[in-house]
Specification:
- The chain has 118 residues and is mostly beta strands.
- It is 0% helix and 48% strand.
- Strands 2, 4, 5, 6, 9, 10 and 11 form a seven-stranded mixed β-sheet that branches. A four-stranded antiparallel β-sheet has the order 1-3-8-7, with no helix packed on it.
């Protein structure tokens, strides 16, 4: 059974930084594509970034140059470093397991709220 847990959300001022973490169990982590998605109120869930087992990274245009996805296969953990945050980054961020580079798999974490506001 796949178990996914995110952490690290919170309230931050525009221009600030946050780092999200996602730990996953019940999978062969080093061979699994991990993704971060987000959903803002009234909007569809969208891809933020993904990382293959070989650490090939894909980013949404809206976050390129500001967000960085990374992974530690030894710890079964993927991270999302978010810098230069903007109010439009406010959303619930979800970790996803086992999708493709641009589409999600069926296993999700519970989500963590990120709010960018002054």
């Amino acid at each position: 059974q796949v178990h996914v847990v995110e952490s690290g959300g919170g309230l931050v001022q525009p221009g600030g930084s946050l780092r999200l973490s996602c730990s996953a169990s019940g999978i062969i982590f080093g061979f699994t594509i991990m993704g971060w998605y987000r959903q803002a109120p009234g909007k569809q869930r969208e891809l933020v970034a993904s990382s293959t087992g070989g650490d090939t990274r894909t980013y949404a245009d809206a976050v390129k140059g500001r967000f960085t996805i990374s992974r530690d296969n030894a710890k079964n953990t993927v991270y999302l470093q978010m810098d230069s945050l903007k109010p439009e980054d406010t959303a619930v961020y979800y970790c996803n397991v086992g999708g493709t580079k641009t589409t999600p798999g069926t296993d999700w974490g519970q989500g963590t709220q990120v709010t960018v506001s002054s």
